[in-house]
Amino acid sequence: MVSLRRIAKFALPQLVLILAALEIASFAQCHAGNEAGNVPYPPGGPYQGVSFRVWAPHASSVSVKDPFSNRSVALVAQGSSGYWCVDVPGIGVNQYYDYVITTPDFGSITRRDPNARAVTHAKGHALTYDPTTYIWHDQNFQPPSLNKLAIYEMHTGTFNATSSQWGTFQSSIAKLSAITDMGFNAVELLPVTQFDGVYANPYGPTDQYAVDNDEYGGPDNLKAFVDACHQQGLAVILDVVHNHWGPFDLADNDFDGWHTTSFPGGIYFYDEVASTGDREQSPWGPRPDYSYPIAQNYISGQIEMWFDEYHADGLRWDSISNIYNAWGGGVGNDPNTGQPGVALPDGVKLLQNANTTWPQSFKIAEDLSFSKKQSLDTIPVASGGLGFDSQWNATLGYFVRKDFPSSNPINLADVVSGMTSTFNNVYLQSVAYVESHNELTTKNSRLYQLVDPQDPTSRIARKKAALGAAIMFTSPEVPMIFQGDEFLDASYLDNKTPLNWNNATTWSGIVQLYGNLVGLRTNAADDTPGLTDPDLNIYQQDKKNDVLVYDRYNKSSPGSDDVIVIANLSGTVFSGGYEIGLPYGGTWQVLFNSDSTAYSSDFGNVGPSGQVVALNVPYGDQPYSATIPIGDYSLIVLSRK
Fold it and tell me: In terms of pTM, does the model score above 0.85?
């Protein structure tokens, strides 16, 4: 990777951009080359300056303007390409600018640069910026393999914030150790591109290339965050939103002024024609035109930026069903409108190109439009699929959140259905979670709050929440939690309620429980290799007592590293013992018991101590057996390592 100079804090401009027309001289060829946006002159050259290049195909004239002095300089049309460019000597970075575009029949308009890497805010001005000046310190970082990936989903604005101070990339760095201490090896950031206003929805991007500046801290602070993550062993997965943009304060909207009744959004967006399924509008805002080469390149350029300029380790694509399909309903009819889905083949091509251009990265899709065992999302591009490694799978979380809060016995079949939900019969093609930001958009929506609304931190609420987490981490999918789950935080995604880090002290035992589960799932101590293996065999399903016993193993080398999990989904305490089948004889080590008083003083501490010796007595379709005590709503992990 290129060695670059670090800028610790992105500063807003202190000086206005001074453009004196007599001092401006355009070079015959723009320094920007084929790039768009503001492009500083190459470092080490004899001159300081910035090239400005923008796509405005319907314009008759374009100029770049200092919004404070109103001095401006004209850009020159680059043939019939629709691009305009000018070199402006003598200016540097962190300077304000706007484009003034005149288009026949639409007059003159002022617009932010849609390719700017930084803007003042969603209703503000673009800023000149040099993406090559940050010095990285992550050259030795190696991301984990997919089978050992453990994801912590976080929202920058609330992760480390106060009621009066929005969270930033820098404030998040200060709390990274809380994530790494639990053993997580990846963070997934909710979108970080510029969005509309304080406490607004980060899934409403206003500027596709600009990292949120007025609240999160801008591009160099994002680089510092990624750098710090890598130095602490955390991969960074960025959430990207191209199923829609906006819908508010879009830099791209009617960009060069041109628009029609059919094309209300202008040059970057689809037409709004009923026969094509209203391609221009998604459920959340206008959809970019994937069929137009320049729009394709515009999106692909942003993806390239995340990897090349920000050292991202992977991307999570938001709602890809609204990229490959106009209605987001997948095969068949949209569940909300009843209308048939309209395929967007150019959206398919966009996703395929991205997933084959950066094959070494984590490629994760969100596609919750319908349930299916066969998924094109995670089939290789060479076989006609979209080429994602994995996709979000809400099935386990759905059943846990449906059944665990009920006062009725937990439905064993539901839990089994959630645990065995796969795409293309490959468990790692699923990212599993009990809850994500999608489930936490309303107050009191965390699992422990649903279990006991009157007393959310009651013993049963904590026991069931711990059990749900333990089932997820011992299942073979890629595990993910949402920030604060590990210490029973009450925050939710209203985009302004911060995590209460005092809860990490109050519920330090629950934090330890999560840390132990992450360590088991990633085989951190080299004693649970079966939990990183691809196979699952739920061989004992006791519907009478609500107990599951399952084997995590590799069927290609049976017996080499099996891990046995016993989950009691009932309120019964089996203090006298519960009989389980075991696939192999000898001594099994007890590596985890969610009923341990180490996690909470009011847990029962019911369970085998240290070791379990398998008897040569068949039980539960297994050749060996043992009888072990197990607490209510508890999970125990055994290993022969």
Answer: yes
